[in-house]
Amino acid sequence: MQALPIWLRAKLHLREAMDAAFGDRYRGRYAFADHHEAHAASAFFPSPFEEAAVLTIDGVGEWATSSIGHGQGNRLRMLRETRFPHSLGLLYSAFTYYTGFRVNSGEYKVMGAAPYGEPRFKELILEHLIQVSEDRSFWMDMAYFNYCQGTTMTSEKFHALFGGPPRRPETPIAQREMDLAASVQAVCEEVVLRCGRHAHALTGSPNLVMAGGVALNCVANGRLRREGPFENVWIQPAAGDAGGALGAALIAHHHIFGFRRDTRCPDAMRGSLLGPAVRNDDVAALLRSEGAAFHHLPDEAALFDRVADLLASEKVVGWVQGRMEFGPRALGGRSILGDPRSEKMQRVMNLKIKFRESFRPFAPSVLAGRMEEFFDLPAGSDSPYMLLVAPVNEAKRTPGATEAMRGLEGLDRLGIKRSEIPAITHVDFSARVQTVDPDRNPRYHGLLQRFHAKTGCPILVNTSFNIRGEPIVCTPADAYRCFLGTDMDALVLGDYVLLKDEQPNLEKIDRDAYQSAFALD
């Protein structure tokens, strides 16, 4: 029993815990949704499809680690599943741990490091760690793992296979770790492709919806979109466990209470802008109480014009508007923005704003109607939730960049200008694309339009408004504190614009202490 995770004890007594929490306020019955059923519901019910195949892949729910379902109207049926301990999500987490990153939060870093490496360990993984069948089923040799019986992800046999112990966190990342990242990423993509093809064979649907933590692997998603059998793919923006709450509510709504389902176009997620809202009255009160210097621009055209000018002059701008995003991606509600044409923007944002590893890539927000001009996704593709990676089109790449990077290893490739939008072009010429349309996020779309009119570029760098180790900012006060404590040049809170060099109260935050708390060794 001691080998089981501590959280399992709470799950075994969940009904009693809920009774204690509610007291006399609720004496009705409880409805419990299976973990993967909740993921599947979160993907299908808000999607724009009347009917779709459903693919969910994560670490583990109760016992399922991946599943295939089929949604029609207001009903969802689960068809196939793979069970613990055989888990693509846990395989990826094992390599996250082994390469020195934190499990359940560092998987993005593994995905970001993969393009700097070569998948030279891929065959070793497929030979020893995981066997994958054409029907998408897979089996893992648990002698190489320790997560069933211990407190670490990998075993000594794993370490012997790959030539040494795990990398110590915060030590320099070496080419070996980048090659390991590239290898497990290649295996992940192969498994996801096979799962997608099997889901299509089972259901015959032209539509696919996805959820579960592995559905946040936007590189695998991009390959499935480009190479898979589906005409349309929609991914739940809160694909991780947070989205399970939404799925459980939707199961109750449709399956238990029998409410009909009306599909909505583009989807029913409202841009995933479902969190707390920023109100101008609250912003004004905060800025006055802090003695901040600000410019109030209630005219939206004037606001867009001012911010577009700042971005075009290579300023880094914090952008806090409307409701906060639900899910791990900043989508124009709580974002830090920059000019993608700038050759210095990636390094500045990573090291001076986010205080994180210099190799981490940034995402482009692109006007929806201009996406195909810059990125290689099938015609008509939509990526509103930043969950598809696509190659930057050949016409936008820098001539000779491929040759210039040939022979360079790892981070040395960062010094090569790879395209006319270098701040968002990864070293493998890929980008994690967000398409922006006026239906889902009209204000952010308006800013992009104005930046495009000024510069001829319909793209902005978009990264989440937070620094390493902290959650995405929620309130104006959160954003103001982060603005003062970093080298961000400007902050836009609703209709209010703040410029760093005008602020009279920078001494209120010990910026050296604030930054050193999150800076990399």
Give the SSE layout.
Elements: H1 6-12, H2 14-22, H3 35-44, E1 51-57, E2 64-72, E3 75-83, H4 88-98, H5 107-113, H6 122-129, E4 130-132, E5 138-140, H7 156-161, H8 175-203, E6 207-211, H9 218-227, E7 232-235, H10 242-256, H11 280-290, E8 295-296, H12 300-312, E9 317-320, E10 334-338, H13 345-353, E11 363-367, H14 371-374, E12 388-391, H15 401-405, E13 430-436, H16 442-455, E14 459-464, H17 476-485, E15 490-493, E16 496-499, H18 511-516
Parallel strand pairs: 1-6, 6-7, 9-15, 11-13
Antiparallel strand pairs: 1-2, 2-3, 4-5, 8-16, 9-10, 10-14, 11-14, 12-13, 15-16
Q: List segments where confidence is low: pLDDT < 50 over at least 5 consecutive residues.
A: 517-521
Give me the secondary-structure category. Answer: alpha+beta
Please tally the β strands and state the result.
Answer: 16
Strand ordering within the main sheet = 8-16-15-9-10-14-11-13-12
- The whole-angstrom Rg is 23 Å
- Through-space gap between termini: 38 Å
* Mean residue pLDDT: 92
Characterize the largest beta sheet: strand count, sense, and whether it forms a barrel.
9 strands, mixed
Helical residues, percent: 25-40%
- The helix count comes to 18
Shape: globular
Q: What portion of residues belong to β-strands?
A: 15-25%
